[in-house]
Amino acid sequence: MSEIAKRIPLLAEASERELEAFEQFAVLKTFAAGEQLAFEGDSCPYFFVVLKGRMRVYKIGESGREITLYYVDPFESCVLTAFCILSQTPLPAYAVAEETLEMVVIPSGEFRKWIDRFPVWRDHTFNILSRRLGEIMATIEKVAFLRVDERVAVFLIQALPPSRDVLAITHDKLARELGTTRVGVSRVLEEFEKNGWVSLSRGKIHIRDRHALQQKAKNTLLM
């Protein structure tokens, strides 16, 4: 087993044929933080597994607002890339390296063959499809049915476990995460600060009253 294959947990119990195919076609690539990886409408020339770093997958509306669909972390793959390859349709979103990104890439033609031939890749693909579909549906429902203040409260509760009370994030980035405007996010956070629920400093949000935020989010999908 190659050193690259050893770094990918899903290959731990791969067959000899699966490993041979992987080592023949898989290539290690690195991308800088902030590098644009894909644009909506692109074809998908390869499938990938992230080894290190983080990828952000997002949409841009007609107004120019961004909304984060999900992140791809180490040992994960992008469900929309899998969809693009298997359906042979253009990518329906954008992707950017949130951090310095190291990934193994596999030509899309080979990946389609592997789905048919190799259980390890078929299972991996079905797992990401089932997991990410729920996340994307939850994001759509939040944008469609929740007010901005509820979405901010939900995000803060999800982003910070009880053991942490400081989130390093700018108002602009939070707006992109939620698919709203920076002005709207700032207005909500200032209101939360007046209520004593959070305190704000440059690039950081400090949670002061987690219970109040949970109450704000109580009628959402989170609860």
Report on this model:
It is a single chain. The protein is α+β, with helices and mostly antiparallel strands and 223 residues long. The chain has 9 helices and 10 strands. The protein has helices at 3-6, 16-25, 79-87, 108-117, 119-145, 148-159, 171-178, 182-194, 210-216, and strands at residues 27-31, 36-38, 46-52, 55-60, 66-72, 94-97, 101-107, 166-168, 198-201, 204-207. The strands form 3 sheets. It has a 4-stranded antiparallel β-sheet with strand order 2-6-4-5. A hairpin with a 5-residue loop joins strand 4 and strand 5. 29% of the residues are buried.
Uncertain ranges: none
Number of DSSP helical runs: 9
Q: Tell me about the biggest sheet?
A: 4 strands, antiparallel
Class computed from helices, strands and strand pairing: alpha+beta
Strand content: 15-25%
Anisotropy-based shape: elongated
Name the helicity range.
40-55%
Rg from alpha-carbon coordinates: 20 Å
H-E string: HHEEEEEHEEHHHEHHEEH
What strand order characterises the main sheet? Answer: 2-6-4-5
Q: What is the CA-CA span between the terminal residues?
A: 45 Å
- Strand tally is 10
User: What's the rounded overall pLDDT mean?
Assistant: 90
